[in-house]
Design brief:
The strands form three sheets. The chain has a seven-stranded mixed beta sheet with strand order 9-11-12-13-10-14-15, with helices on both faces. It has a six-stranded mixed beta sheet with strand order 3-2-4-5-1-6, with helices on both faces. The mean pLDDT is 84. It has 487 residues and is an alpha/beta fold. 43% of the residues lie in helices and 14% in strands. α13 packs across α14 and α13 packs across α15. The radius of gyration is 29 Å and the shape is elongated.
Length: 487
Amino acid sequence: MDNHDPRRALVLLVNSAYPIIYLETWEEGRASQILAGVAEDLGVPLYEWAATTGLARAGGAPIFNSQDPGQALAAITSITGDGLFVFKDFHKCLTQDLIVRKLRDLAEGFRRARRAIIVMSPVVTIPVELEKDTTHFALGLPSEAEIDSLVKITLRELVATRHLRNDLPPAQIPLLIRSLRGLTLAILEKSVLDMSTLDAVHEAKAQLIKDQGVIEFLKPESGLSSVGGLGRLKAWLEKRRAAFSPQAERFGLEPPKGIMIFGVQGCGKSLCAKAVAHEWNLPLLKFDTSRLMEKYIGESEKNLSKSLQVAEAVAPAVLWIDEIEKMFPHAARTSDADGGLSLRLFGTFLTWMQEKKWPVFMVATSNDISALPPEFLRKGRFDELFFVDLPNAEQRQAIFSIHLTRHQQNPASFDLRQLAEDSAGFSGAEIEEVVKSALYTAFDRKTPLSVQMLVDEMRSTYPLAVTMKEKIEALRAWAHQRAVPAN
């Protein structure tokens, strides 16, 4: 079970006479605060157990000789009346037959009172003997309102006890609150709170993502101005620039889900995906499909679930999946091609796309959209499907200008119109390679780069329009009346 209001949900579970509640969380401090509120709402005492301290009523002294888990459970039988009994890191004890038997004995009596044992742990291991007596509750990510409250409380405490100096402009506080999603508030514990704190949060998120191994954290260096053409796609993205802001939420807007960008190779799909995060000032996460598949049963599913959890933990964020058709290599074919693994992963991913609770804007790119299952492309999965074709003459001029500028050349010194005419059928990536190759020629000859050198490079190669003519025509035919032209 998962709920956006964990305090209210836990009250409901206790009132429903669940004798054992398995609370899955890494945030022990936050969970303890929530459980204190649950006990307050129910009007019952709260007891906590840890192997280092033993069993104690909140704010009181530990019960004698209760560090041993068996003794702690025995002590509960002598405590009369209602109550919540929280056992921290108790999953390690659930491998002991005696502990499991004691829990079963206690559970029978707990059904007739507002008494519950709450096992708090980051790892879920429920013995089969306890499955009927136990309900699983996953403590979800804190809401923005919850983070807002925690940040303000933490700042007041740090100012009072550690003389923290708050130099962060008030307008940046909402950005800090948003950025802290998925992190602990320990990152605020330094002498000065200023703009560098936002950089520290950014680095902490990068490390969090790096540690889990399947999603890569990228820092895009440039925005949409570095992408030539794609005017309609850029306009669509520009209109939604502030869609993740509190103002948009108050206005009644829902954050956009994501877009699919497919089409001809080398025409700016990946560049655009990276530029979105830069333009919207959001973290950029790249899903590494090559690390998804594992040889051991169940590991691939765990990799996918963990990756999606990480993406939500750092939301709002942009999640980029490059060549998404490689993510589910057999889902569009037969279910037994890989033992049904692709279909299981595909089903999990579709469910997440439909039901994700946090603002993760997905940018999926594809070179071969025919390899994707049709269910993936139906309305509602993405906000829009954009088809990226080869750039036209005007767009090729812009692409030449971008790459000449990037290599310390003045575009005004070149006849861009002629270059655009001579590069008909070239993709953006091919134009970039033409500029690089011509620069090598100019450097070797010890002369300035010229239009002729660029033209010579173009004439020495065959563009995609020639080498992939049939495939490009097939893509155009598929996109007609199915997708929005990005250009």
